[in-house]
Amino acid sequence: MQIIKSFVCGGWHEGKGTPIAVFNPATEEKIGEIRAGDTDMKAVLAYARSRGVPALSSMTFGERGELLKAVAVALHAKRDELLDLSIRCAGTPRGDAKFDVDGAIGTLTAYASWGIALGSRRWLLDGEIETLGRSPRFSGRHVLMPRRGVAVHINAFNFPAWNMMEKAACALLAGAPVIEKPGTPTAMLAARICEIIVEAGCLPDGAWQFIVGPTGDLLDHLDEQDSLAFTGSSGTAAILRGHPNLVRRNVRVNMEADSLNTAILFPDVDPESPTFAMYVSNVALDITQKSGQKCTAVRRIVVPADRVGVVRERLVAALSEVKVGDPSDSAVRVGPLASASQLADVRAGIARLAASCETAVGGAAPVAPTGYFVAPTLFVAPSPETSVVHEHEVFGPVATIVPFDGSVAEASRIVALGKGALVTSIYTNDAAVALAATAEIAPWTGRVWIGSDRMAEQQLPPGMVLPASIHGGPGRAGGGEELGGLRGLAFHLQRTAVQGFKGVLEGFAPDAPAS
Predict the structure, then answer these.
(1) Residue limits of CATH 3.40.309.10 in the chain
(2) In whole numbers, what is the pLDDT of the chain averaged over residues?
């Protein structure tokens, strides 16, 4: 059994608090233990401010990009070990483990390349110089400067590698030292990543710290230059957002929470077309990948009423072929949920849906005598007005077919019933429908993914978060925004209006000498 430790103030800290057990979700064997509760959080922040902030602030974007490149190289060298550990501690089949670990390495590599391309720059520009007076002698422009604070990241259990490193990549490139707090059920994988980074010496002292278990009074000590980014449930997000110190000191907060993502099939798509096949394939993938524990997974399968039968038939066929079981078995496609509490939550959610919808396949019945397994489960709602479908995200291999009249107006209304999403996918070969639907859906979703025959062979599925596009969404989804290329840095930078003589302002140009 492994003791999972924190890395704070330049060293490893085991903790002396009440032990928190970590289990192999496929066998329910205890494999690790977290002992937390006595970490001096004020000292952890002071360490980051006194060492990490000045070290990173003294570097250019290009130099910080090289740091991220070194982290990516170090993790890639241990990739096979990380994949094996993901199978054991997170219950992920090897393909799903790659989705997490390779996603982390790929995101680090992308941000490293963007940083290196910025070279000797120490700030970013927002727009051009604008004349403010009678002539250009008095002008203004906006610059984005690194702040002098610490980035605290409370990460989700479902992507212990990717979720941690996508937050860290943006913050570190922007010049903010990070304090990473992983989800407890899968903290063993996150802790090993931490060990690799520390052993490789990739980052300056104080730029990287790692806390397992409860965060104690950490948030009480954040100040005006610091930030908090959270991924998890909307209930926890609401509590964190209202934390008295964060409110009083206007600490920057970014939230990614629940998301009732929707996949919409429009009537013009023929059942024998590549787009229809792509629709069924992508929906089935979202239900099964990571055992449905994916914030971008589709939960509402919106289908024209006269196509419900064929979509149901093909999805049932696809899901029935999927093997559920021990993730170390190469034939298994769906492993267990991450924890016993997650299993209880998903079974309760299935029961709520089953009370109002027809079960097409799957259900809450036990799949194996041990382990936190749930079979891929598909429901069919009697109408778009079935409220339970739009009120609660069941964070497991569960989705519901929702019939609609085929119109853009009805589709957008159904999306809005979810009160905010990370991604909405629409499938149509009619460009006018695609544009009209995007315009109506966009206010309720952070990303719109458009599937058609013309991109079917080139597509990356809508459940995949890419570093070049923003990740986040309004309302229920948390109201936050991460990634998006260099847009992801803005959360950690201060946008400042600079006014004065145009000749002075030109000194902020990208090709100006670094100062």
Answers:
(1) 261-467
(2) 95
